[in-house]
User: Which sequence fits this backbone?
Protein backbone atom coordinates (compact mmCIF):
# COMPACT_ATOMS: atom_id res chain seq x y z
CA UNK A 1 0.00 0.00 0.00
CA UNK A 2 1.95 3.03 -1.27
CA UNK A 3 1.35 6.61 -0.27
CA UNK A 4 2.64 9.54 -2.26
CA UNK A 5 2.35 13.29 -1.82
CA UNK A 6 2.46 15.36 -4.99
CA UNK A 7 2.96 19.14 -5.15
CA UNK A 8 1.05 19.74 -1.94
CA UNK A 9 0.51 23.36 -0.88
CA UNK A 10 -1.58 24.69 1.97
CA UNK A 11 -2.28 28.20 3.27
CA UNK A 12 -3.78 29.55 6.49
CA UNK A 13 -5.17 32.80 5.18
CA UNK A 14 -2.13 34.69 3.91
CA UNK A 15 0.41 32.41 5.59
CA UNK A 16 1.87 29.66 3.41
CA UNK A 17 2.26 26.55 5.59
CA UNK A 18 3.28 24.05 2.89
CA UNK A 19 4.67 24.80 -0.52
CA UNK A 20 4.99 22.33 -3.36
CA UNK A 21 5.70 19.38 -1.07
CA UNK A 22 6.31 16.08 -2.88
CA UNK A 23 7.56 12.73 -1.60
CA UNK A 24 6.78 9.05 -1.60
CA UNK A 25 6.97 6.97 1.55
CA UNK A 26 9.17 3.91 1.29
CA UNK A 27 6.90 0.91 1.82
CA UNK A 28 7.52 -1.33 4.81
CA UNK A 29 10.03 1.03 6.40
CA UNK A 30 10.25 3.66 9.09
CA UNK A 31 10.30 6.99 7.24
CA UNK A 32 11.49 9.80 9.48
CA UNK A 33 10.17 13.35 9.17
CA UNK A 34 12.41 16.04 10.63
CA UNK A 35 11.64 19.71 10.81
CA UNK A 36 11.89 22.66 13.16
CA UNK A 37 8.91 24.30 14.85
CA UNK A 38 6.54 25.79 12.31
CA UNK A 39 8.04 23.77 9.47
CA UNK A 40 4.60 22.48 8.50
CA UNK A 41 4.75 18.97 9.98
CA UNK A 42 1.43 19.21 11.80
CA UNK A 43 -0.25 20.65 8.72
CA UNK A 44 1.16 17.79 6.66
CA UNK A 45 -0.24 15.27 9.17
CA UNK A 46 -3.61 17.03 9.21
CA UNK A 47 -3.76 16.74 5.43
CA UNK A 48 -2.61 13.12 5.38
CA UNK A 49 -5.25 12.23 7.95
CA UNK A 50 -7.84 14.35 6.10
CA UNK A 51 -8.60 16.49 9.13
CA UNK A 52 -7.97 19.35 6.72
CA UNK A 53 -9.21 19.39 3.15
CA UNK A 54 -6.69 19.57 0.32
CA UNK A 55 -6.22 23.02 -1.20
CA UNK A 56 -3.58 22.38 -3.84
CA UNK A 57 -1.77 19.22 -4.88
CA UNK A 58 -2.60 15.58 -4.36
CA UNK A 59 -2.16 12.75 -1.91
CA UNK A 60 -2.14 9.43 -3.69
CA UNK A 61 -2.90 6.03 -2.25
CA UNK A 62 -1.79 3.28 -4.61
CA UNK A 63 -1.46 5.91 -7.35
CA UNK A 64 -5.05 7.11 -6.95
CA UNK A 65 -6.08 10.44 -5.46
CA UNK A 66 -7.53 10.27 -1.95
CA UNK A 67 -10.16 12.76 -3.07
CA UNK A 68 -11.93 9.76 -4.59
CA UNK A 69 -11.07 7.22 -1.90
CA UNK A 70 -11.12 9.13 1.35
CA UNK A 71 -12.64 6.25 3.34
CA UNK A 72 -10.18 3.74 1.95
CA UNK A 73 -7.28 5.88 3.16
CA UNK A 74 -8.82 6.19 6.62
CA UNK A 75 -9.16 2.42 6.77
CA UNK A 76 -5.50 2.04 5.89
CA UNK A 77 -4.19 4.68 8.29
CA UNK A 78 -3.27 4.29 11.93
CA UNK A 79 -2.41 7.55 13.65
CA UNK A 80 -0.75 8.55 16.91
CA UNK A 81 -1.13 12.28 17.35
CA UNK A 82 1.34 14.44 19.22
CA UNK A 83 -1.31 15.34 21.78
CA UNK A 84 -2.80 12.37 23.63
CA UNK A 85 -6.29 11.57 22.40
CA UNK A 86 -7.13 8.89 24.96
CA UNK A 87 -10.21 9.27 27.12
CA UNK A 88 -8.83 9.47 30.66
CA UNK A 89 -12.11 8.43 32.29
CA UNK A 90 -12.24 5.14 30.42
CA UNK A 91 -10.18 1.97 30.77
CA UNK A 92 -7.60 0.79 28.25
CA UNK A 93 -10.05 -1.72 26.80
CA UNK A 94 -12.90 0.81 26.66
CA UNK A 95 -10.69 3.24 24.74
CA UNK A 96 -9.77 0.50 22.30
CA UNK A 97 -13.38 -0.62 21.95
CA UNK A 98 -14.46 2.92 21.09
CA UNK A 99 -11.81 3.23 18.41
CA UNK A 100 -12.63 -0.25 17.12
CA UNK A 101 -16.34 0.59 16.91
CA UNK A 102 -15.54 3.66 14.81
CA UNK A 103 -13.75 1.31 12.41
CA UNK A 104 -16.54 -1.26 12.37
CA UNK A 105 -14.86 -3.78 14.68
CA UNK A 106 -17.12 -5.67 17.06
CA UNK A 107 -16.31 -5.82 20.76
CA UNK A 108 -15.25 -9.46 20.38
CA UNK A 109 -12.84 -8.62 17.54
CA UNK A 110 -11.40 -5.74 19.58
CA UNK A 111 -10.83 -7.94 22.63
CA UNK A 112 -9.03 -10.53 20.51
CA UNK A 113 -6.82 -7.98 18.73
CA UNK A 114 -6.24 -5.85 21.83
CA UNK A 115 -5.03 -8.77 23.92
CA UNK A 116 -2.38 -9.66 21.33
CA UNK A 117 -1.33 -6.05 20.68
CA UNK A 118 -1.05 -5.08 24.34
CA UNK A 119 0.79 -8.28 25.16
CA UNK A 120 3.35 -7.38 22.54
CA UNK A 121 3.64 -3.86 23.92
CA UNK A 122 4.14 -5.18 27.43
CA UNK A 123 0.72 -4.07 28.69
CA UNK A 124 -1.07 -7.41 28.58
CA UNK A 125 -2.14 -7.13 32.21
CA UNK A 126 -3.38 -3.51 32.04
CA UNK A 127 -6.44 -4.05 29.86
CA UNK A 128 -8.92 -3.10 32.56
CA UNK A 129 -6.87 -0.32 34.10
CA UNK A 130 -8.02 3.26 33.80
CA UNK A 131 -5.94 5.44 31.47
CA UNK A 132 -5.43 7.83 34.39
CA UNK A 133 -3.51 5.15 36.27
CA UNK A 134 -0.97 4.70 33.43
CA UNK A 135 2.27 6.65 33.12
CA UNK A 136 3.14 8.64 30.00
CA UNK A 137 5.07 5.82 28.33
CA UNK A 138 2.29 3.32 28.86
CA UNK A 139 -0.31 5.76 27.56
CA UNK A 140 1.74 6.16 24.39
CA UNK A 141 1.87 2.40 23.99
CA UNK A 142 -1.90 2.22 24.35
CA UNK A 143 -2.19 4.85 21.61
CA UNK A 144 0.07 2.80 19.37
CA UNK A 145 -1.99 -0.31 20.09
CA UNK A 146 -5.12 1.65 19.30
CA UNK A 147 -3.67 2.94 16.03
CA UNK A 148 -2.86 -0.64 15.00
CA UNK A 149 -6.15 -2.16 16.12
CA UNK A 150 -7.85 -2.06 12.73
CA UNK A 151 -4.73 -3.46 11.04
CA UNK A 152 -3.69 -0.44 8.99
CA UNK A 153 -0.91 -0.69 6.44
CA UNK A 154 0.38 2.83 7.15
CA UNK A 155 1.18 4.20 10.59
CA UNK A 156 1.59 7.94 11.18
CA UNK A 157 3.37 8.91 14.38
CA UNK A 158 3.53 12.58 15.27
CA UNK A 159 6.18 13.07 17.97
CA UNK A 160 5.06 9.80 19.53
CA UNK A 161 7.91 9.71 22.06
CA UNK A 162 7.80 13.30 23.18
CA UNK A 163 8.06 13.69 26.96
CA UNK A 164 9.10 10.09 27.55
CA UNK A 165 12.24 8.84 29.28
CA UNK A 166 15.03 7.23 27.29
CA UNK A 167 14.03 3.65 28.12
CA UNK A 168 10.41 4.22 27.05
CA UNK A 169 11.53 5.97 23.86
CA UNK A 170 13.88 3.15 22.92
CA UNK A 171 11.25 0.55 23.65
CA UNK A 172 8.65 2.25 21.42
CA UNK A 173 11.22 2.82 18.69
CA UNK A 174 12.21 -0.86 18.79
CA UNK A 175 8.61 -1.98 18.67
CA UNK A 176 7.75 0.19 15.67
CA UNK A 177 10.80 -1.15 13.82
CA UNK A 178 9.68 -4.70 14.62
CA UNK A 179 6.29 -3.89 13.11
CA UNK A 180 7.91 -2.62 9.92
CA UNK A 181 9.99 -5.78 9.67
CA UNK A 182 7.35 -8.33 10.65
CA UNK A 183 4.21 -6.83 9.15
CA UNK A 184 5.61 -4.69 6.32
CA UNK A 185 4.05 -1.66 7.98
CA UNK A 186 4.90 1.68 6.37
CA UNK A 187 5.62 4.28 9.05
CA UNK A 188 5.94 8.05 8.87
CA UNK A 189 7.53 9.18 12.13
CA UNK A 190 7.77 12.89 12.85
CA UNK A 191 10.42 13.33 15.50
CA UNK A 192 12.85 15.88 16.83
CA UNK A 193 15.10 13.24 18.35
CA UNK A 194 17.69 12.55 15.69
CA UNK A 195 19.15 9.64 17.68
CA UNK A 196 15.90 7.75 17.00
CA UNK A 197 16.79 7.64 13.30
CA UNK A 198 18.96 4.82 11.95
CA UNK A 199 21.49 5.32 9.14
CA UNK A 200 19.39 3.43 6.59
CA UNK A 201 16.08 5.08 7.44
CA UNK A 202 14.54 7.18 4.68
CA UNK A 203 14.47 10.77 5.96
CA UNK A 204 12.43 13.81 4.93
CA UNK A 205 13.58 17.20 6.14
CA UNK A 206 10.80 19.77 6.08
CA UNK A 207 11.78 23.39 6.55
CA UNK A 208 9.60 26.48 6.11
CA UNK A 209 6.95 24.41 4.37
CA UNK A 210 9.31 22.88 1.82
CA UNK A 211 11.01 19.48 1.56
CA UNK A 212 14.74 20.24 1.73
CA UNK A 213 15.98 16.65 1.79
CA UNK A 214 14.49 13.30 0.82
CA UNK A 215 16.93 10.38 1.04
CA UNK A 216 18.27 7.76 3.46
CA UNK A 217 20.00 9.32 6.48
CA UNK A 218 23.49 8.23 5.41
CA UNK A 219 22.89 9.63 1.93
CA UNK A 220 21.85 13.03 3.33
CA UNK A 221 25.04 13.07 5.41
CA UNK A 222 27.09 12.24 2.31
CA UNK A 223 25.36 14.95 0.25
CA UNK A 224 26.05 17.51 2.96
CA UNK A 225 29.61 16.27 3.50
CA UNK A 226 29.12 15.77 7.23
CA UNK A 227 29.45 12.82 9.60
CA UNK A 228 26.12 12.93 11.43
CA UNK A 229 22.49 13.59 10.60
CA UNK A 230 22.43 16.26 13.32
CA UNK A 231 25.14 18.16 11.47
CA UNK A 232 23.35 17.71 8.15
CA UNK A 233 20.14 18.98 9.70
CA UNK A 234 21.97 21.98 11.10
CA UNK A 235 23.48 22.71 7.72
CA UNK A 236 20.16 22.47 5.91
CA UNK A 237 18.02 24.43 8.34
CA UNK A 238 20.60 26.70 9.91
CA UNK A 239 19.52 25.51 13.35
CA UNK A 240 22.25 24.63 15.80
CA UNK A 241 21.05 21.64 17.75
CA UNK A 242 18.46 18.96 17.35
CA UNK A 243 16.39 20.15 20.29
CA UNK A 244 15.33 23.01 18.07
CA UNK A 245 13.80 20.56 15.65
CA UNK A 246 10.64 19.88 17.69
CA UNK B 1 -18.38 -0.33 4.40
CA UNK B 2 -20.67 -3.07 5.64
CA UNK B 3 -24.00 -2.06 7.18
CA UNK B 4 -22.99 -3.76 10.41
CA UNK B 5 -20.09 -1.29 10.67
CA UNK B 6 -22.65 1.53 10.93
CA UNK B 7 -24.52 -0.28 13.68
CA UNK B 8 -21.29 -1.10 15.53
CA UNK B 9 -20.27 2.57 15.39
CA UNK B 10 -23.66 3.67 16.76
CA UNK B 11 -23.35 1.14 19.56
CA UNK B 12 -19.76 2.22 20.27
CA UNK B 13 -20.62 5.92 20.47
CA UNK B 14 -23.66 5.21 22.67
CA UNK B 15 -21.56 3.04 24.98
CA UNK B 16 -18.83 5.66 25.26
CA UNK B 17 -21.29 8.43 26.09
CA UNK B 18 -22.92 6.22 28.73
CA UNK B 19 -19.58 5.32 30.28
CA UNK B 20 -18.59 8.98 30.41
CA UNK B 21 -21.95 9.81 31.92
CA UNK B 22 -21.53 7.14 34.60
CA UNK B 23 -18.12 8.57 35.44
CA UNK B 24 -19.62 12.03 35.81
CA UNK B 25 -22.12 11.25 38.58
CA UNK B 26 -22.40 14.88 39.62
CA UNK B 27 -23.66 15.68 36.13
CA UNK B 28 -26.60 13.32 36.64
CA UNK B 29 -27.33 14.73 40.08
CA UNK B 30 -27.20 18.34 38.93
CA UNK B 31 -29.42 17.49 35.97
CA UNK B 32 -32.06 16.34 38.48
CA UNK B 33 -31.49 18.89 41.22
CA UNK B 34 -32.03 21.89 38.93
CA UNK B 35 -35.60 21.02 37.81
CA UNK B 36 -36.41 19.59 41.23
CA UNK B 37 -35.64 22.96 42.78
CA UNK B 38 -38.11 24.52 40.38
CA UNK B 39 -40.70 21.88 41.02
CA UNK B 40 -40.48 21.83 44.79
CA UNK B 41 -39.15 25.22 45.87
CA UNK B 42 -39.93 27.82 43.20
CA UNK B 43 -43.30 26.33 42.32
CA UNK B 44 -44.39 26.63 45.95
CA UNK B 45 -43.90 30.38 45.77
CA UNK B 46 -45.21 30.82 42.24
CA UNK B 47 -48.32 28.78 42.91
CA UNK B 48 -49.69 31.43 45.24
CA UNK B 49 -48.97 34.27 42.82
CA UNK B 50 -49.87 32.60 39.55
CA UNK B 51 -53.24 31.04 38.83
CA UNK B 52 -53.45 28.68 35.88
CA UNK B 53 -56.84 28.56 34.21
CA UNK B 54 -58.14 25.58 32.26
CA UNK B 55 -56.11 25.44 29.07
CA UNK B 56 -55.56 22.58 26.65
CA UNK B 57 -54.52 19.82 27.07
CA UNK B 58 -55.72 19.99 30.68
CA UNK B 59 -59.36 19.09 31.23
CA UNK B 60 -59.61 20.76 34.61
CA UNK B 61 -57.83 23.15 36.94
CA UNK B 62 -54.30 22.02 37.66
CA UNK B 63 -51.63 22.88 40.17
CA UNK B 64 -48.73 25.05 39.09
CA UNK B 65 -46.41 22.07 39.63
CA UNK B 66 -48.42 20.05 37.13
CA UNK B 67 -48.23 22.90 34.64
CA UNK B 68 -44.47 23.26 34.77
CA UNK B 69 -43.63 19.55 34.68
CA UNK B 70 -43.37 19.37 30.84
CA UNK B 71 -41.33 22.59 30.80
CA UNK B 72 -38.94 21.20 33.38
CA UNK B 73 -38.58 17.97 31.38
CA UNK B 74 -37.60 20.14 28.42
CA UNK B 75 -35.27 22.09 30.71
CA UNK B 76 -33.37 18.83 31.36
CA UNK B 77 -33.19 18.20 27.61
CA UNK B 78 -32.01 21.77 27.01
CA UNK B 79 -29.25 21.66 29.60
CA UNK B 80 -28.20 18.19 28.52
CA UNK B 81 -28.06 19.24 24.86
CA UNK B 82 -25.84 22.19 25.78
CA UNK B 83 -23.74 20.06 28.13
CA UNK B 84 -23.08 17.64 25.28
CA UNK B 85 -22.11 20.52 23.09
CA UNK B 86 -19.69 21.64 25.80
CA UNK B 87 -18.25 18.14 25.85
CA UNK B 88 -17.74 18.32 22.06
CA UNK B 89 -15.80 21.58 22.45
CA UNK B 90 -13.78 19.94 25.25
CA UNK B 91 -13.11 16.89 23.05
CA UNK B 92 -11.89 19.19 20.31
CA UNK B 93 -9.63 21.13 22.66
CA UNK B 94 -8.24 17.92 24.17
CA UNK B 95 -7.76 16.32 20.76
CA UNK B 96 -10.07 13.34 21.24
CA UNK B 97 -12.35 14.66 18.51
CA UNK B 98 -9.66 13.51 16.07
CA UNK B 99 -10.40 9.89 16.99
CA UNK B 100 -13.96 10.40 15.84
CA UNK B 101 -13.00 12.26 12.67
CA UNK B 102 -10.49 9.56 11.70
CA UNK B 103 -13.30 7.03 11.36
CA UNK B 104 -13.85 5.88 7.77
CA UNK B 105 -17.60 6.19 8.29
CA UNK B 106 -19.36 9.25 6.84
CA UNK B 107 -19.36 12.27 9.15
CA UNK B 108 -23.11 12.61 8.74
CA UNK B 109 -23.51 9.18 10.28
CA UNK B 110 -21.08 9.97 13.11
CA UNK B 111 -23.01 13.15 13.85
CA UNK B 112 -26.28 11.24 13.84
CA UNK B 113 -24.81 8.71 16.28
CA UNK B 114 -23.72 11.57 18.56
CA UNK B 115 -27.21 13.05 18.40
CA UNK B 116 -28.83 9.74 19.27
CA UNK B 117 -26.42 9.26 22.17
CA UNK B 118 -27.20 12.74 23.52
CA UNK B 119 -30.94 12.09 23.15
CA UNK B 120 -30.89 8.69 24.85
CA UNK B 121 -28.90 10.04 27.79
CA UNK B 122 -31.32 12.94 28.10
CA UNK B 123 -34.32 10.61 28.11
CA UNK B 124 -32.90 8.59 30.99
CA UNK B 125 -32.62 11.79 33.02
CA UNK B 126 -36.11 12.99 32.11
CA UNK B 127 -37.76 9.74 33.13
CA UNK B 128 -35.78 9.75 36.39
CA UNK B 129 -37.11 13.27 37.01
CA UNK B 130 -40.70 12.33 36.18
CA UNK B 131 -40.30 9.41 38.61
CA UNK B 132 -39.21 11.84 41.32
CA UNK B 133 -42.19 14.02 40.43
CA UNK B 134 -44.52 11.21 41.54
CA UNK B 135 -42.91 11.45 44.98
CA UNK B 136 -44.09 15.06 45.29
CA UNK B 137 -47.55 14.25 43.96
CA UNK B 138 -47.06 15.54 40.42
CA UNK B 139 -48.61 12.61 38.64
CA UNK B 140 -49.22 12.69 34.89
CA UNK B 141 -51.34 9.88 33.42
CA UNK B 142 -49.44 6.59 33.22
CA UNK B 143 -50.26 6.14 29.54
CA UNK B 144 -48.80 9.61 29.00
CA UNK B 145 -45.40 8.30 30.09
CA UNK B 146 -45.46 6.16 26.96
CA UNK B 147 -47.02 8.63 24.53
CA UNK B 148 -44.59 11.37 25.60
CA UNK B 149 -41.57 9.29 24.58
CA UNK B 150 -41.53 10.26 20.86
CA UNK B 151 -42.10 13.92 21.78
CA UNK B 152 -39.22 13.84 24.25
CA UNK B 153 -37.01 12.09 21.71
CA UNK B 154 -37.75 14.67 19.02
CA UNK B 155 -37.14 17.53 21.47
CA UNK B 156 -33.89 15.93 22.63
CA UNK B 157 -32.78 15.60 19.00
CA UNK B 158 -33.68 19.24 18.34
CA UNK B 159 -31.76 20.54 21.33
CA UNK B 160 -28.88 18.15 20.67
CA UNK B 161 -28.67 19.46 17.12
CA UNK B 162 -28.68 23.06 18.39
CA UNK B 163 -25.89 22.08 20.80
CA UNK B 164 -23.81 20.39 18.09
CA UNK B 165 -24.26 23.37 15.82
CA UNK B 166 -23.07 25.69 18.60
CA UNK B 167 -20.10 23.43 19.34
CA UNK B 168 -19.01 23.70 15.72
CA UNK B 169 -19.06 27.52 15.98
CA UNK B 170 -17.41 27.87 19.38
CA UNK B 171 -13.65 27.80 19.12
CA UNK B 172 -12.66 27.88 22.78
CA UNK B 173 -14.05 26.38 25.93
CA UNK B 174 -13.94 29.79 27.60
CA UNK B 175 -16.48 31.15 25.12
CA UNK B 176 -19.02 28.65 26.28
CA UNK B 177 -20.20 30.83 29.17
CA UNK B 178 -21.85 33.01 26.52
CA UNK B 179 -24.06 30.10 25.55
CA UNK B 180 -25.60 30.22 29.02
CA UNK B 181 -26.49 33.88 28.69
CA UNK B 182 -27.38 34.04 25.03
CA UNK B 183 -28.96 30.65 24.36
CA UNK B 184 -30.08 28.67 27.40
CA UNK B 185 -31.62 31.42 29.53
CA UNK B 186 -33.46 33.29 26.75
CA UNK B 187 -34.67 30.03 25.21
CA UNK B 188 -36.01 28.76 28.52
CA UNK B 189 -37.45 31.92 30.03
CA UNK B 190 -39.00 33.19 26.80
CA UNK B 191 -41.11 30.09 26.42
CA UNK B 192 -44.25 28.53 27.83
CA UNK B 193 -42.19 26.35 30.18
CA UNK B 194 -42.93 28.36 33.33
CA UNK B 195 -46.01 30.41 32.43
CA UNK B 196 -48.78 30.04 29.85
CA UNK B 197 -48.39 32.38 26.88
CA UNK B 198 -51.68 34.17 27.64
CA UNK B 199 -50.16 35.21 30.94
CA UNK B 200 -47.18 36.56 29.10
CA UNK B 201 -49.46 38.48 26.74
CA UNK B 202 -51.12 40.20 29.70
CA UNK B 203 -47.75 41.69 30.61
CA UNK B 204 -46.19 42.36 27.23
CA UNK B 205 -47.43 41.94 23.68
CA UNK B 206 -43.97 41.86 22.06
CA UNK B 207 -42.67 39.36 24.61
CA UNK B 208 -45.66 37.19 23.83
CA UNK B 209 -44.73 37.17 20.14
CA UNK B 210 -41.10 36.39 20.88
CA UNK B 211 -42.22 33.48 23.04
CA UNK B 212 -44.61 32.32 20.32
CA UNK B 213 -41.88 31.97 17.72
CA UNK B 214 -39.38 30.41 20.11
CA UNK B 215 -38.99 26.76 18.96
CA UNK B 216 -38.49 25.77 22.59
CA UNK B 217 -42.08 26.90 23.31
CA UNK B 218 -43.31 24.50 20.64
CA UNK B 219 -41.15 21.70 22.01
CA UNK B 220 -42.62 22.29 25.49
CA UNK B 221 -46.15 22.26 24.09
CA UNK B 222 -45.44 19.10 22.10
CA UNK B 223 -44.28 17.38 25.29
CA UNK B 224 -47.15 18.84 27.33
CA UNK B 225 -49.81 17.55 24.94
CA UNK B 226 -48.10 14.18 24.47
CA UNK B 227 -47.88 13.73 28.25
CA UNK B 228 -51.69 13.95 28.24
CA UNK B 229 -51.92 11.57 25.26
CA UNK B 230 -52.74 14.32 22.79
CA UNK B 231 -50.96 15.50 19.67
CA UNK B 232 -50.27 19.16 18.99
CA UNK B 233 -49.70 19.19 15.22
CA UNK B 234 -48.37 22.75 15.02
CA UNK B 235 -45.85 22.07 17.79
CA UNK B 236 -44.81 18.84 16.08
CA UNK B 237 -44.20 20.55 12.75
CA UNK B 238 -42.19 23.41 14.26
CA UNK B 239 -40.10 21.08 16.42
CA UNK B 240 -39.43 18.67 13.56
CA UNK B 241 -38.58 21.54 11.20
CA UNK B 242 -36.20 23.11 13.73
CA UNK B 243 -34.55 19.72 14.30
CA UNK B 244 -33.97 19.30 10.59
CA UNK B 245 -32.69 22.86 10.19
CA UNK B 246 -30.13 22.63 13.00
CA UNK B 247 -29.07 19.11 12.03
CA UNK B 248 -28.16 20.38 8.57
CA UNK B 249 -26.34 23.39 10.06
CA UNK B 250 -24.50 21.16 12.53
CA UNK B 251 -23.44 18.82 9.75
CA UNK B 252 -22.14 21.73 7.69
CA UNK B 253 -20.23 23.04 10.70
CA UNK B 254 -18.95 19.57 11.53
CA UNK B 255 -17.61 19.09 8.02
CA UNK B 256 -15.81 22.38 7.88
CA UNK B 257 -14.82 22.94 11.47
CA UNK B 258 -11.34 21.46 11.36
CA UNK B 259 -10.38 23.46 8.31
CA UNK B 260 -11.96 26.55 9.80
CA UNK B 261 -10.21 26.13 13.12
CA UNK B 262 -6.83 27.37 12.02
CA UNK B 263 -7.83 29.70 9.26
Assistant:
Amino acid sequence: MGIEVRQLSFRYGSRQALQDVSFRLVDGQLNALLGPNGAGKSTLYALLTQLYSLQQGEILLDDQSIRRQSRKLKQQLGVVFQQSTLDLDLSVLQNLEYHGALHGLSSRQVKREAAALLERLGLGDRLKDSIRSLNGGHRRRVEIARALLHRPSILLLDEATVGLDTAARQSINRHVRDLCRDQSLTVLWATHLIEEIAADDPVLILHRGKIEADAPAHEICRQQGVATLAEAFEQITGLKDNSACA
Amino acid sequence: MRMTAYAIALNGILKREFLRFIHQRTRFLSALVRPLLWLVVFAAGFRAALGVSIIPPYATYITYETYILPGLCCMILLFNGMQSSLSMVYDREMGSMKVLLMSPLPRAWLLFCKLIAIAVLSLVQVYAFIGLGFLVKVEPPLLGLLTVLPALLLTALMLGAVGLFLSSRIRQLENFAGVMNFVIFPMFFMSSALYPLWKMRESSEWLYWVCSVNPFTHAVELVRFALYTELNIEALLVTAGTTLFFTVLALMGFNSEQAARKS
In short: Chain B is about 80% helix and 0% strand. Chain B touches chain A at residues 1-2, 4-6, 8-9, 11-13, 15-16, 19-20, 23-24, 94-96, 98-106, 110, 258-259, 262-263 (CB under 8 Å). Chain B has a mean pLDDT of 85. Residues 64-94 of chain B form the longest helix (31 residues).
